[in-house]
Hints:
Belongs to the Fur family. This protein is of the alpha+beta class.
Amino acid sequence: MNAQQLLQQAxxxxxxxxxxxxxxxxxxxxxxxxxxxxxxxxxxxxxxxTVEPGAKPATVYRALDFLAAQGFVHKIxxxxxxxxxxxxxxxxxxxxxxxxDNCGNVEEIQSNNLDLALRAMADASGFSINKQVVEAHxxxxxxx
Length: 144
């Protein structure tokens, strides 16, 4: 799916949920959709300022918070960056990321077995999982 198709899907998702996808949020969404892989907030700000010269860090951070809350974006805590989720229609899915420490490539994977195992261990401990993000670091196929 291209960036415009993803944006249209995001608009529909927001319309259904009653969330407001503002122009600034759309611009940040498009920058993420057009970016290949994960990107930091200040790199996003730099790109945003080419189309919106007055954009400030708060503009980007507010947009990222909104996009993450809608499930459109995953925050990668260990490298402090963001990745567009291209299957965000599957709201609240578990997030599993493979992060290459050499080239910085980030790949989102889906393992139902990992999700089930983690939930089973949490249940056994009396713990209720609200959100799941698993970040695995190593070397990608290209860098090995």
